[in-house]
From TrEMBL:
UniProt-annotated stretches for the region Disordered: 925-962
Keywords: Coiled coil, Golgi apparatus
Record's keyword annotation contains Secreted: no
Biased composition (Acidic residues): 934-962
Organism: Cryomyces minteri
Localization: Golgi apparatus
Principal location listed in the UniProt entry: Golgi
Designated name of the protein: Vesicle tethering protein Uso1/P115-like head domain-containing protein
Coiled-coil residue spans: 675-748
GO cellular component: endoplasmic reticulum; ER to Golgi transport vesicle membrane; Golgi membrane; Golgi stack
Transmembrane segments: none
UniProt domain Vesicle tethering protein Uso1/P115-like head: residue ranges: 341-654
């Protein structure tokens, strides 16, 4: 039975047949449910059989996007299937790199295919929007140019894509960032369109929402990549960025801004592995604004300075917690910011940075302790970083600091000369505590506390840039000499000292980098400078040592022979018959000791060495060497350009006739007689110029002295002014304190009066109770009590009149005191006027420096007068204090009298009510007596009533008068 059923069962389908069946169903189905079922089946095969699915069903899938656009569920599985075709299983037998290309070609052949995907980008459905963005990214990865063209041609293409950045769903937003990054790479027009869709503000909003550079993750890095694409080599977008004030947002992103200080405190104990990548990315973006030779570079430099970015980046570079790679990138950014901008170069030296210093080690082998942050000027900090002893890991930071110093005096002759003068002065006097490039070069190995191959190399590079193509700087440096001829010491010039360190280093086998640094400096210095050549030739042993080094190739130091040959060629090329070793003497030395062939081979081998030939492509940082080893950095870009530009001339130098001399920038022969006459004229004019410079120097010294005296005078006047100001402030504070004390005393007196009033009121109430008792005993006692109360009321009224007069007198006295206070305030105004007069006098004294001492004496006299007036004001203040106390005392007495009067009035009212009750009771008693048959005297009663009525009326009238 089972065999019969198996025989009747349909044959098993393989994957290809199933895919063909599902593809046919997709292409021919009219009902949405049938298409959806076919698509679900195709999706299950897409990962493993991408070629089969794509060949049979791709057009049907694309058509389904158009037909079923309203059905969210169907669109979701269609997009998922298409994404699987672009990203199949790597182990699939049909997997191939050509499949994504073929798929992308089919999508980009028709504009409406990309347009329908952009329509899905506009929908609110999560999966439709996300998958459509990812699908466009996959198409762009395979065919970037065609995809960019389709996006540009689609209606509102860039607008719809940039709007994705506002999506609150992280997955959709991040996919949009990646898509825009891919699309804007190397597409200038698309970069401009994206930038004009307010992309900059949207990117910065995302960065802020993600926690900024220090707390953000990979999304921040993607945002920075997109920002870099929009700004790289695009002056239009950079101008838009700058003019819209977006540079301020760069400032806010950097560590140290106001917005980041709170986050930084919370971030101290939080290690974010993405932080350094984000910082490096932002610094790279800053450098895109500062490309050398670009149209908007100067405007960008000024904008960075205006918003304080330069100082922020410097602080980041000198922060002890910043890693070396970030330090280096920050310093390169600073160098790009000031390079070629004279205004920023001149202000750069005034900036200050915080560095961590260490005390000298104490005795008994104790280690040095850290002093903590210390503020120094940025040039001093950079020199300490470059020329200080450091580990190999700090090379990138030192190289960047060196680049920053080079940018500081780049194309600025005044700064070069100033920098060199300070270095020379610090070296000759020995008082400069900061690192000194000249001392490092001249002292040689003696200047190295610990072995550091790059310390003298960096010093050589800096000096080479200082004097390159600068006649004045070369003359300044040539004037430096060691030794005192008058004391019988040998005088050694700067060039000879450097050459001596070079030859000693060659003999002692010093690190090749140190020797390369010396040779780079000497070759560039002596080129086209006959005076410098003669200075070096004054020490004849140097030529012998150079010739010997050039003739002996070394495997350990392959660069030294070629560089020594270059230096010998420069010496011969620019020597004269008047040189200490003349041209006719020098040429046989080169030919006999070195030989023409060895000379030529040494220079050619140097030119073909990878460090010279491939200099532009080799990394010039610590990544060029294994961890812990010295970097393979030997040359400076300036010297490499110099060597390549003059290679042919140097190779032919040894063939030139020793009877012919050359002058700078010329290869023609010279007339020595004419040259000697010109030199004579030049000497006479030079002497006249020196005399004029001496006179100018004298005048400058006088002017400096006068300016110093003037500054001291201004400081004295400012000190006097500050003293007067402090005295006025002290008087004001004392016055306020006294007022507070008076108010406190008034409050205490008020509380005391309230207590006394309560006590008096209690005693009056006791008397009232006693009075009521007496009234109940008989009418005569009541009459006596009423009479007594009337007398008390009269005495109270008299006391009130007396206190009222005292109160008026106190009011008059208070008015008088207020007028005195106004007088004191007027005196204070006069004092301020006097201070203003003192300022005017200080300005007037500037016009007459010769009478400075006498005017200062007058100022001191005025100060004594003002001090006396201040003493008088203090006395007046004491009188005012006493008057205020008297006013307070009188006011207290007045309040007591008023309260006593109010209590007496209340008591009188109570007595009148008691009297009325008694009269009513008496009337009832008389009626009761009449009813009982007793006789009463109406006359006596009437008389008493009249008499009592009159007394009551008099009491009321007295009360009304009171």
């Amino acid at each position: 039975m089972l065999r019969m059923l198996e025989a009747q069962a349909p044959a098993k389908q393989n994957a290809t047949d199933a895919i063909n069946t599902l593809s046919g169903r997709l292409n021919n189905a009219t009902l949405l449910e049938d298409r959806r079922g076919a698509i679900l089946g195709l999706r299950s095969f897409a990962k493993e059989y991408p070629a089969s699915v794509a060949s049979g069903a791709l057009r049907g899938l694309i058509e389904s996007l158009k037909k079923d656009a309203e059905d969210v569920d169907t669109i979701k599985i269609v997009l998922e299937t298409l994404l699987m075709l672009f990203n199949p299983n790597e182990k699939s037998p049909e997997a191939s790199e050509d499949i994504p290309l073929w798929l992308a070609d089919l999508f980009t052949q028709r504009q409406d295919n990309i347009t329908i995907l952009l329509d899905f980008v506009e929908t609110n459905d999560f999966y439709s929007r996300l998958y459509s963005i990812q699908l466009i990214s996959a198409i762009s990865t395979a065919r970037p140019e065609r995809t960019q063209e389709c996006i540009l041609s689609a209606p509102l293409g860039t607008t719809r894509l940039v709007a994705v950045l506002d999506d609150l769903r992280d997955a959709v937003r991040d996919a949009g960032i990646i898509l825009l990054t891919d699309l804007t790479r190397d597409a200038t027009e698309l970069q401009k369109l994206v930038a004009f869709e307010n992309a900059f503000d949207r990117i910065f909003h995302i960065i802020k929402a993600e926690g900024g550079l220090t707390q953000g993750g990979i999304t921040i890095q993607d945002c920075l990549s997109l920002l870099a694409n929009l700004l790289r080599n695009n002056p239009s977008n950079q101008s838009l960025f700058r003019e819209n004030g977006t540079v301020r947002k760069l400032h806010d992103l950097l560590p140290g801004s106001t917005q980041n200080r709170t986050a930084a405190k919370d971030d101290d104990n939080f290690l974010n592995p993405q932080k350094n990548k984000n910082l490096w990315g932002l610094l790279a973006i800053l450098r895109m604004f500062l490309v050398k030779g670009s149209v908007g570079t100067k405007a960008n430099q000024d904008a960075f300075q205006r918003y304080g970015i330069l100082q922020q980046v410097l602080n980041l570079a000198f922060d002890k917690s910043t890693e070396v790679a970030i330090k280096a990138e920050a310093l390169y950014t600073c160098a790009d910011t000031i390079r070629g901008n004279a205004k920023l170069q001149e202000g750069f030296a005034q900036l200050q940075v915080a560095v961590v210093t260490r005390n000298e080690p104490t005795v008994n082998g104790e280690t040095a302790r850290t002093d903590g942050p210390q503020t120094v000027y940025v040039i001093d900090g950079l020199l300490d970083l470059v020329l200080g002893v450091a580990s190999n890991q700090m090379f990138d930071a030192r190289a960047a600091a060196c680049e920053c110093i080079k940018a500081y005096f780049y194309n600025h002759t005044q700064i070069r000369v100033h920098f060199l003068r300070r270095a020379i002065e610090g070296h000759t006097t020995g008082e400069d505590e900061t690192a000194n490039v000249l001392s490092t070069l001249i002292n040689g190995p003696l200047a190295d506390e610990t072995p550091d191959a790059y310390r003298r190399w960096f010093a050589s590079v800096l000096v080479m840039h200082l004097i390159y193509d600068d006649r004045e700087a070369k003359d300044l440096l040539m004037a430096v000499a060691e030794g005192d001829a008058e004391s019988g010491e040998e005088v050694v010039t700067c060039i000879q000292a450097i050459a001596g360190n070079l030859t000693a280093g060659i003999r002692n086998g010093e690190d090749e980098r140190v020797l390369v640094g010396y040779l780079m400096l000497l070759c560039s210095w002596l080129y086209e400078d006959a005076d410098a050549v003669n200075d070096l030739l004054g020490e004849g042993s140097t030529v012998q040592s150079l010739a010997q080094a050039a003739s002996r190739p070394s495997m350990d130091q392959p660069l030294i022979p070629g560089l020594c040959a270059v230096l010998l060629g420069v010496l011969y090329e620019f020597s004269t018959k008047d040189s200490p070793i003349s041209r006719r003497t020098l040429r046989p030395i080169l030919v006999s000791r070195l030989g023409r062939e060895k000379y030529f081979d040494a220079i050619v081998h140097l030119r073909q060495h990878p460090h010279v030939r491939d200099f532009e492509v080799l990394p010039q940082n610590s990544s060029s060497a294994p961890i812990g080893a010295l970097p393979n950095v030997f040359f400076d870009p300036l010297f490499v350009d110099f060597l390549k530009d003059n290679f042919s001339r140097l190779t032919r130098a040894v063939d030139r006739d020793p009877g012919l001399e050359v002058i700078p920038q010329s290869l023609q022969s010279v007339n020595r007689d004419l040259l000697d006459d010109l030199r004579t004229q030049l000497d006479s004019r030079t002497q006249a110029l020196q005399r004029a410079e001496a006179e100018l120097l004298t005048k400058e010294k006088q002017l400096n002295q006068e300016q110093a005296d003037h500054r001291r005078y201004q400081e004295t006047a400012a000190a006097v002014q500050n003293k007067i100001k402090s005295v006025n402030e002290a008087l004001q504070r004392d016055h306020e304190n006294e007022i507070q004390k008076i108010h406190a005393a008034n409050r205490a007196a008020t509380e005391y009066m309230q207590d006394q009033h309560e006590r008096s009121l209690g005693s009056v109430r006791a008397q009232l109770e006693a009075t009521k008792a007496f009234m109940q005993e008989g009418s005569q006692a009541n009459s006596a009590t009423i009479a007594k109360l009337s007398e008390n009321n009269a005495s109270i009224k008299a006391a009130y009149d007396e206190l009222d007069g005292a109160y008026k007198s106190l009011v008059e006295e208070a008015s008088r005191l207020e007028s005195e206070i106004e007088g004191l305030e007027k005196a204070n105004g006069e004092l301020k006027t006097t201070v203003a007069d003192l300022r005017k006098e200080a300005l007037a004294r500037e016009e007459s420096i010769t009478s400075l001492n006498s005017k200062i004496s007058n100022l001191e006299s005025d100060l004594r007068k003002e001090t006396e007036r201040i003493v008088e004001l203090e006395a007046a203040k004491e009188e005012q204090k006493k008057a205020n106390e008297l006013v307070a005392k009188k006011e207290k007495e007045l309040r007591m009298t008023e309260e006593a009067r109010s209590a007496a009035q209340t008591e009188l009212d109570d007595m009148l009510m008691v009297l009325a009750d008694l009269e009513e009771k008496r009337a009832r008693d008389k009626r009761r007596l009449k009813e009982l048959g007793e006789e009463t005297s109406d006359v006596e009663e009437d008389g008493e009533e009249v008499e009592e009525g009159e007394e009551a009326d008099e009491a009321v009238e007295e009360e009304e008068e009171a």
